[in-house]
Every structure is written in C-alpha cells, then in structure tokens.
Specification:
The protein has one domain. Helices cover 44% and strands 18% of the residues. It is built from eleven helices and nine strands.
Amino acid sequence: MSGNWRDQPERGSGAALRIIRWIALRVGRPPARLLLYPIALYFFLTARAARRASREFLERAGVRRVHAGHIFRHFHTFAAVILDRVYFLRGELERFDLRLHLDDGVREHLAEGRSAVLIGAHLGSFDALRALGVHERRARLKVLMHHDHNQLVTRLLEALNPRFAETVIPLGRPDTLLRTHEWLSEGGCVALLGDRVFAGDDSLRGRAVTCSFLGAPARLPTGPLRLAATVRAPVMLFFGIYRGGCRYDVHLEWFAQPEDLPGQRDTAALAGLAQRYAARVEAFSRDAPYNWFNFYPFWQRPEGEDDRAPAADAETAR
C-alpha cells in the first residue's frame, strides 16, 4: 500500500465537501441526492488517477467486467456518504435506517462503560458509528484522527457540530498515547482507522507489515494493534456499510481480548493479527465494494514503478 496518501491535495476533498455541505443545509437530503449526480460526474471526469484506482479495486473485489458505469457508481456512493456525513454530524439520525449488528456481548460491554479500542477502515461511513456514540450515547467514544491533515475539511466538519471537536484525540502528538490511556482508564472507547500507512513513524503510526488483501500484497499499519497492546484493551472491528437510500448497517464485532494481544516486539504475532484484520476488511469489501473509499494505488507496486496518485479523497480528513 502506498504511504503517500497524506500528500494528496485538498482540492477534491475540500471543494466536494463545501459544495455538498451547502446543498445539504440549503435544500435538504432528497433534492441534494439528485444533485450528487453532476457532482460525481465532475469528479469522474477530472480525477483520472482516482478512476484508475477505482477500477483496480473493483476488479479485485469481484465486480465483473468493470466499466465506466461501475466506476461512476463508486464515485456516486462516495458522494452520497459525504452528504450523509453532514446530517450525521448535525445529529439528524432520524433521517436514517440505522441497523446495528453486534457480536454477542458487545452491547453489554459498551453499556457497562467498559473500554475498548475500535478499529475500522475507509470502508463505508465512520460517522454512522461516531454519531451513535455522541448523540445516542451508546458508548463513550473518542476518535483518534489526524487533525492537522486537510485542515480545510476538518474546519468545515467541526463547524457543523462543535461537540465533535471535543471527541477527537489528535494523532501524532507527544501526548496522544497519554490522553488515550487516560480516556480508556475511565471506561471510554477510542476508534481509529487501520488501513493506511503513514510516511512518518511513531508509536501509533508507521511500522507496517505486508498482508494479502484481495489477492495481492498490501502494506497495513500495526500501529492500531500496538496501541491496543500498550493500553491492554480489548479490540473490536467496526464497519458502517451504506446500503443505499437511507440505510446503514453498523457492524461491531470482537477481534482480540487483551490477553490475546502480543508484545510490542512480537512482530510475527502482530503481522498475524494484521492479516486477520485484512481478511475481515476483505470480506466486507467483497460484500459492499462501492463502499471502499481509498481512491489511490493501494497495493504494492513492483520496485521502481511510480504509484503516486493525486486522487481526490475526502476521507483523508479522518
């Protein structure tokens, strides 16, 4: 997997989100959804690298005979989830058919105020889970995210609901681990995405391993797993899959208990857990391929092949 996604400009993400936010707040969701078609078409026509990345992913995920219509649908699904992000951040959950799919014991674990590390991917909606935590108080949830990257997008989102800014623990800062540990010790949960490698390196980033993902090698970070091992918290996986219309399926499943987490130096065991994570992301990717929102070259390329892609990607705000 390429580590250069953070180098992608805000061109697409900021512009798309600013337009969609204005439409969402001015005309409402049904008319706004109609306007997603020309917006998606614009990015389909102008984002060549993102089209190429979309085609590669869809082919690997099992979509047969991928053509322009499939790629446009991929872009349109992305735009639809961005639109709904506006309403999730505003706490307008009544607009949606949110269906929770929980492993046995997950509901009780969260209701009892017990801590957990929740790891997701750029697959579907992160904000569906986040909104349930903030507005429905299903869990005391804070989010680990790169607050300084794509600051335009961050400002646009936080303006919708300042309460969400209070739920963020910024990654890559000297006090990140301390703040995370304190929050977990109080019975809170932290959520982060675990499918992108960072060019920098610290205790929560970097340190990637090669995993098999959709039939090819991809680099995945071990930072989220190292974090869970450091704070000795159980790990759950989460996926907020968009099914079309108003429906989102939010999945929370057990992944590892504290006693199952290896030590920081047990590279082989961490690689095994990363491969298990890759297998679950792969399963959901095959089930809902248009929910995949990494619009850049994800798989490792042969040595010497340039995999840089100036893709438009609003999810880099996370």
